Amino acid sequence: MAYSLVRSVRSDALLRSTFLSVPLLKSFSQDALVEIKPGEIGLVSGIPEEHLRRKVIIYSPARTASQQGSGKVGKWKINFLSTQKWENPLMGWTSTGDPYANVGDSALSFDSEEAAKAFAERHGWDYAVKKRHTPLLKPKAYADNFKWKGPPKTAEV
Amino acid sequence: MGFGLLALRASRTSSAINRSCFSTSPTLLISRIFASQSPNPSNRHSRGIVSTPELLQNAEATAEAPQPQEIHPPRTPLAGARVHFPNPEDAIEVFVDGFPVTIPKGMTVLQACEVAGVDIPRFCYHSRLSIAGNCRMCLVEVEKSPKPVASCAMPALPGMKIKTDTPVAKKAREGVMEFLLMNHPLDCPICDQGGECDLQDQSMAFGSDRGRFTDVKRSVVDKNLGPLVKTVMTRCIQCTRCVRFATEVAGVQDLGMLGRGSGEEIGTYVEKLMTSELSGNVIDICPVGALTSKPFAFKARNWELKATETIDVTDAVGSNIRIDSRGPEVMRIIPRLNEDINEEWISDKTRFCYDGLKRQRLNDPMIRGPDGRFKSVSWRDALAIVAEVARQVQPEEIVGVAGRLSDAESMMALKDFLNRMGSNNVWFEGNGVRPNADLRSGYLLNSSISGLEKADVFLLVGTQPRIEAPMVNARIHKTVRATHAKVGYIGPPTDFNYNYENLGTGPQTLLEIAEGRHPFCSALRNAKNLAIIVGAGLFERKDKDAILSVVDSIAKLGNVVRPDWNGLNFLLLHAAQAASLDLGLVPESDNSIESAKFLYLMGADDVELEKLPSDAFVVYQGHHGDRSVYRANVILPASAFSEKEGTYENTEGCSQQTLPAVPTVGDARDDWKIIRALSEVAGVCLPYDNLAGIHSRISVVAPNLLRVDDREPTLIHTDLKPDCQQKMSTEPFCSAVDNFYMTDSITRASKIMAQCSASLLLKK
């Protein structure tokens, strides 16, 4: 089915080429070859314009202090700085006026800083990148527990 | 292995038999059926509790089976960890699951696995505490070792072949997990740790679907550790992380292990509270739900929370924190890793001040009527009145004071606004008279917080880091513990959690040291890296310049300021203090408040308003109805640090930014926006109307504030200071912070902080 679709598009283009003026078509095909300009993806995706000019923060979430697991550490995320929230008077649930309120938290995750930057650029967002803090591994030994650390010192001199 | 999988296997074998019916001769079929019924343990489908059936087979068969040569993808250390090589020659190579890694000599097997990117399950091991090796969860198989090895306590040896995912290792961990779960209650659904519990996570991998323990589970009486830490001691697995944290990091010998065997329990020996300013961290390091947050108990589940990585403003350290919010409410604050500032810990004030963000908030612009009561008005009316009054008074009668929690952007806007009104009487409330804002090295912690670990002698002058900046104190404690560094202290009697010498209480002692008459001078002269830490509480003294010049001469005596080491440090008290001095918030006249007619308080609650003329007009812009509101004529509500983007510079000169986690309360606005709007109404419009504009203004005044996470090196000043003509008074130093738990408007509004100061405050 996909193949037939492609074919129909092709025949359509052929058909159109006979009717359309040549310079316009030329500009079309050139556009297809050039790189995507910043902000263009957001524009053609039909995202409202006010959401194409927002400020976002690209960051790599730190490990949860209470958990050892590091499976989620090292991913990069986008924080949309979305605080348009209020408690809905009807049920007390949280309402938001921002379609991106929950996107950065749950849905978007990137393997590298560059991928996140490229994504933000394509959507035309103004981004700032937060430095990622990593732990420093120093040699440790069980034997340190029993090491002689000099004569015992008195508290007050 | 569940029932479903078993059923699937059974049907597979039967279908194989059925298929063979059609293809092979009947005699063969019969022999197959018999073979499947023979008592071969490997084919029996009994429900075993272990999930490693390959171990039940002949050991020789598995050993001789050809190991397929796997091609491993390049591995990176866990969580992007950097490996510190104390001596580059002492590097050894070990093999983790066949993958070679180079590690410094002396690292443990567990650390080698971490470098190879293999996460070893663990309960008792914590990278910032000493090694206990008592939970046995980190067992791995090491080639040529007869038994599984506890990787956390075993030093890695050159050429060691470590196998982390073999059946032997898995079986060993499953055995440990079964014993751990034997006495652990099945109350995950009502446990606050549920969802972020190490025991829960690891039982998913190594736990069985049922237990063989039929006896009664042991029960342990809960302990009362104070208003911050909730205990459910039956959940405890005796990893002793909290005991080691209390002794090694917090420096209090409060917690310990009592009893033996199944009667073993964590406790405080005698009934008492845990009196440490870092006690909240035991909540994080507890791998189970035995120690949880008391104020957060049953308030939310952690998967409902939205995390925002931001900065703490309750002291000048600028600890890295994560604000967890649910909807428009801050639910909790937990630490975030930053090796250079707070490692993985935060103070109790940082962790539990969040309930102050929900109380006493100013949510509407208000004007005090003739009857003395406040009336809510619109922003337009409030700004119009403030602008009207500001235009009527003389320029030199306008005074602006920035508060402890102000961000750099709003302080810049305040200074610009007042300067445009013709006044230069703008200052920061904790800096005292004529602060030294000329040289950055004159007010910063020059050796940096992590650099304090290099010091071997400390001289604390009029500062009590334990209550002024607990994270700096934790570094000093770490250094004293690791290297037996000497600590000398000049100031009022206080309680430190490490060995120190109280040299004296006031400037007299300082003078004795400077003249070389004091016995501590020999320690100063022999010190390789002397760190002098001067408290910012001294900035408010009248004889500040004289004291600082004496400190300078001590610094010369100890050769403190060198190209490779600058140990002359100033420990600031407030989050906004360093940025205020960088931006030059220095008043023109010393006693501007006595002649003020128009006082603009931007979150300033500790200004001495008694000296203010009674006819002065006071504008209070801030987020909490705190001390200064009683005197205010107009209130302009602003947003708190959890609700705005702001730049803060910490005491070591590292600028960091907060991010908004929750919406602002009521009709409040960001501080700089209010001043920008007011400037327009007053007819002196400021030339910026967004954050980028105000940042470009800051880049002219103090460009270092915009380089986030970066420490601008300070100039070394030795002979730049003019000679001091001041006379030093003999009045002893006083403590800069009376109550550790209540230092600013947020913490003063907090109920938890009030409980803490009632029950935990260190008795003097």
Automatic annotation (TrEMBL), chain A:
Protein name: NADH dehydrogenase [ubiquinone] iron-sulfur protein 4, mitochondrial
Taxonomic superkingdom: Eukaryota
Pfam family, one: NDUS4
Gene source species: Stephania japonica
InterPro entries per record: NADH_UbQ_FeS_4_mit-like, NDUFS4-like_sf
KW tRNA-binding (keyword) present: no
Keyword field contains Membrane: yes
GO terms for biological process, alphabetical: electron transport chain
TrEMBL record, chain B:
InterPro entries in the record: 2Fe-2S_ferredoxin-like_sf, 2Fe-2S_ferredoxin-type, Mopterin_OxRdtase, Mopterin_OxRdtase_4Fe-4S_dom, NADH_UbQ_OxRdtase_75kDa_su_CS, NADH_UbQ_OxRdtase_ferredoxin, NADH_UbQ_OxRdtase_Gsu, NADH_UbQ_OxRdtase_Gsu_4Fe4S-bd
Domain 2Fe-2S ferredoxin-type residue range list: 90-168
Localisation per UniProt entry: Mitochondrion inner membrane
One cellular component term from this protein's GO annotations in UniProt: mitochondrial inner membrane
Cofactor(s) annotated in UniProt: [4Fe-4S] cluster; [2Fe-2S] cluster
Predominant subcellular localization, coarse grouping: mitochondrion
Domain 4Fe-4S His(Cys)3-ligated-type span(s) in chain numbering: 168-207
Residues of the 4Fe-4S Mo/W bis-MGD-type domain: 305-361
Transport among keywords: yes
EC number: 7.1.1.2
Superkingdom in the source lineage: Eukaryota
GO molecular-function terms, A-Z: 2 iron, 2 sulfur cluster binding; 4 iron, 4 sulfur cluster binding; metal ion binding; NADH dehydrogenase (ubiquinone) activity; oxidoreductase activity, acting on NAD(P)H
Keywords for the protein's UniProt record, in alphabetical order: 2Fe-2S, 4Fe-4S, Electron transport, Iron, Iron-sulfur, Membrane, Metal-binding, Mitochondrion, Mitochondrion inner membrane, NAD, Oxidoreductase, Respiratory chain, Transit peptide, Translocase, Transport, Ubiquinone
Catalysed reaction, written as an equation: a ubiquinone + NADH + 5 H(+)(in) = a ubiquinol + NAD(+) + 4 H(+)(out)
GO biological process, alphabetically ordered: ATP synthesis coupled electron transport
The keyword Cell inner membrane belongs to this UniProt entry's keyword annotation: no
Enzyme class: translocase
Function: Core subunit of the mitochondrial membrane respiratory chain NADH dehydrogenase (Complex I) that is believed to belong to the minimal assembly required for catalysis. Complex I functions in the transfer of electrons from NADH to the respiratory chain. The immediate electron acceptor for the enzyme is believed to be ubiquinone. This is the largest subunit of complex I and it is a component of the iron-sulfur (IP) fragment of the enzyme. It may form part of the active site crevice where NADH is oxidized.
Family recorded in the similarity comment: Belongs to the complex I 75 kDa subunit family.
NCBIfam families documented for this protein: NuoG (TIGR01973)
Protein name: NADH dehydrogenase [ubiquinone] iron-sulfur protein 1, mitochondrial
Species classification: Eukaryota, Viridiplantae, Streptophyta, Embryophyta, Tracheophyta
